[in-house]
Design a protein that fits this description.
The chain is an alpha/beta fold. The chain folds into 3 domains: 82 residues, Up-down Bundle (Substrate Binding Domain Of Dnak, Chain:A, Domain 2), CATH 1.20.1270; 128 residues, Rossmann fold (3-Layer(aba) Sandwich); 177 residues, Rossmann fold (3-Layer(aba) Sandwich). The protein is built from 14 helices and 14 strands. The strands form 3 sheets. A 6-stranded parallel beta sheet has the order 4-3-2-5-6-7, covered by helices on one side. A 6-stranded parallel beta sheet has the order 11-10-9-12-13-14, with helices on one face. The chain has a two-stranded antiparallel ribbon with strand order 1-8. α10 links the parallel β9 and β10. It is globular, with a radius of gyration of 22 Å. The chain starts with 7 loop residues before the first helix and ends in a 5-residue tail after the last helix. Its EC number is 1.7.99.1. Keywords: Cytoplasm, Iron, Iron-sulfur, Metal-binding, Oxidoreductase. It comes from Thiospirochaeta perfilievii. Pfam families: Prismane.
Length: 415
């Protein structure tokens, strides 16, 4: 018990607020770059900081209400950013993207910032440089105003945590434009080719200031052509919820006829380590009557699998909604299904498996809670900032559960 009367439960709830606000701040920053109105988001952030950080309130129910308000703001922020992306770059469409295949003089872009990528593509057009994406930049290939640049070639690597090994192998330049940056090891050879855009940075990194890409372009042209990336692998992306909803009549017919029996959302932030193999096993063992929706970097656990289409239809079984901020698209789809089938959302044949590692997954979870979404399974490990009292509350109110093993968790849903 603190001097002011704050116990461990309230302290942990305030930690959750901070993590959620950190995740929302990233989305808010990118929305602001695109000129979107974000004052409502800022107002909630200010209120939450005053509420939690200044020790102004010690009431449990008020803390839960504040978390739900943050969740609602998170939902709105993701919608604002998604709308801004679609307005600026067009509504994404499904695209097949090469993975781990590179040639020529190359720049690798990692992060989430589509605004920066567009500026880089304009700056490098006609200069003999190919641009590749890494991790959460993969969905960029689905946006018409980005893939129209023919030197946006493909994707390299997987989720954020492969960067130390990947960047060591990559002999072009690298730009990190948002969070998920890792400090290069002292033995690294890529720090001299490593650039930070706007916020991201580590000791020794080169900074891109005022959208001036001159130095990175000059260095890229001075380096050797890409070597060691010759894979024939491809990945699918670009399944915006707006694009998916154009298939609503076919999807509803498939549900009513039994061709689609379930929807699985397997999404979130991937954590390094073998625990993440759980999600690949789950995805690969879902029957062909199941449609899989994903987003965020967790998709790299299984997005190399060819899931094909639902038998008897042309509906893809694998739908990549986009970056982590596009996760709200799964809710839009669920709400549309709920309305069309006249069934409450929590009674739909919809299962949610959330992967989490960092603050953006926290704001996504709070957003789902604020919308009343229940029965979410979380993994690979419980959040360290929850204690037993908070977990028991979430189980009681939202029926959350944690992953154990695929058979015990999902046995009745597997092929």
């Amino acid at each position: 018990m603190g001097t002011c009367g704050k116990d461990e439960v309230l302290a942990r709830l305030q930690d959750t607020m901070v993590f959620g606000l950190k995740g929302m701040a990233a989305y808010r920053y990118h929305a602001d770059e695109l000129g979107a109105h974000v004052k409502d988001i800022d107002d909630v952030t200010t209120k939450a900081l005053y509420f939690g950080i200044t020790n102004a309130n010690f009431n449990f129910d008020d803390h839960i209400s504040m978390l739900m308000e943050i969740g609602r703001a998170g939902t709105k922020c993701m919608q604002i950013l998604g709308d801004a992306h679609h307005k600026a770059y067009g509504t994404p469409i499904p695209k097949q993207v090469t993975n781990n295949k590179a040639e020529g003089k190359c720049i690798l872009v990692s992060g989430h910032n589509l605004t920066m990528l567009k500026k880089l593509l304009i700056a490098t057009e006609g200069k003999g440089i190919n641009v590749y994406t890494h991790s959460e930049m993969l969905p960029a290939h689905g946006y018409p105003e980005l893939f129209k640049f023919t030197h946006l070639k493909g994707n390299i690597g997987g989720a954020w945590h492969d960067q130390k090994k990947l960047y060591e192998k990559w002999n072009g330049t690298i730009i990190m434009n948002t969070n998920c940056i890792q400090t290069p090891p002292k033995s690294s050879t890529y720090l001299d080719r490593f650039y930070g855009y706007s916020i991201p940075g580590v000791e020794g990194i080169k900074k891109i200031e005022n959208d001036d890409f001159t130095k990175v372009i000059e260095q890229t042209l001075s380096l050797a052509d890409a070597e060691g990336f010759n894979s024939d692998e491809t990945l699918m992306t670009g399944h915006s919820f707006k694009t998916i909803l154009t298939l609503a009549p076919q999807i509803l017919d498939a549900v009513k006829s039994g061709k689609i029996k379930e929807f699985f959302v397997i999404a979130g932030c991937d954590a390094p380590g073998k625990d993440g193999e759980y999600f690949r096993e789950l995805a690969s063992r879902l029957p062909n009557t199941t449609v899989l929706l994903t987003s965020s970097c967790g998709k790299f656990r299984f997005n190399d699998i060819d899931f094909g289409v639902v038998p008897g239809t042309e509906i893809p079984r694998y739908l990549d909604l986009g970056q982590c901020n596009d996760s709200y698209g799964a809710v839009e789809i669920a709400l549309a299904l709920s309305d069309a089938l006249d069934t409450p959302v929590n009674e739909l044949p919809l299962n949610i498996q959330l992967m989490w590692m960092e603050q953006k997954a926290v704001i996504i979870l709070l957003a789902l809670f604020s919308l009343g979404i229940q029965n979410i399974k979380i993994g690979p490990k419980p959040a360290q900032f929850f204690n037993d009292d908070i977990i028991n509350f979430l189980v009681e109110q939202f029926n959350i559960s944690y992953t154990t093993n695929v058979d015990d968790d999902w046995g009745n849903h597997l092929k």
